[in-house]
Specification:
single chain; 9 strands; alpha/beta; 193 residues; 4-stranded antiparallel beta sheet; 5 helices; 5-stranded parallel beta sheet; globular; 27% strand; Rossmann fold
């Protein structure tokens, strides 16, 4: 105990503890238990296609720009809400070009991020596709009711958008993508394992 770190789910600096996961030390938030950072983490790169859905144009464009400019994803598809994200995900699955990273705002009109993620998981199963990591982005802090949902939808992660600029948003996203890579094998060519 005594360590501190930035929790992207809580959106602030928190007390932390460490867990040894077979040679990888993970630092976790004392409040919510989610990873803060993973030491010996892989770089945030290697996704072929990312799907980004947010009803706020600023966040949608900032995340898409970050993924493209940093070459985190070769192709970025955007959607204005969960229903459009589901449509885009199904189109990609039909074309056998599924997203291998999905970033969803939690609160969106027509279909919220949680319901969109559940539907995307069902579509992935129906098409025999491997589940893509889902990163939920929200201005809400994570609460106890979301933890079981993240567990059910795994690989799934949560980021608090927090206040600030597109650059700060990119920094928070980079931290989560490092954790995504830590928990998601990238040993196969093309970035998916």
């Amino acid at each position: 105990m005594g360590a501190t770190g930035m929790c992207v789910a809580c959106g602030e600096r928190v007390e932390a503890y460490t867990v040894d996961l077979g040679g990888v030390t993970e630092v976790r938030c004392l409040r919510c238990g989610l990873p803060l950072e993973a030491r010996r983490a892989r770089p945030a790169a290697g996704f072929q296609r990312a799907l980004v859905a947010d009803d706020a144009r600023f966040f949608r464009e900032a995340v898409a720009e970050y993924l493209s400019s940093r070459r985190v994803a070769r192709e970025v598809v955007t959607a204005r809400d969960g229903a459009e994200a589901l449509e885009r995900a199904i189109e990609a699955l039909r074309a056998r070009r599924p997203a291998d990273l999905v970033i969803l705002d939690l609160l969106m009109p027509r279909l919220n991020g949680l319901h969109a993620a559940v539907a995307i998981r069902a579509a992935e199963r129906a098409f025999g596709a491997r589940p893509a990591p889902v990163v939920f982005f929200s201005s809400r802090r994570i609460d106890a009711s979301l933890k079981p949902v993240l567990e059910e939808l795994k690989p799934a992660y949560y980021v608090n958008k927090g206040p600030g600029t597109a650059e700060l948003l990119g920094d928070r996203l980079a931290e989560v993508l490092r954790v995504v890579h830590q928990g998601f094998s990238l040993d196969l060519p093309g970035g998916r394992g």
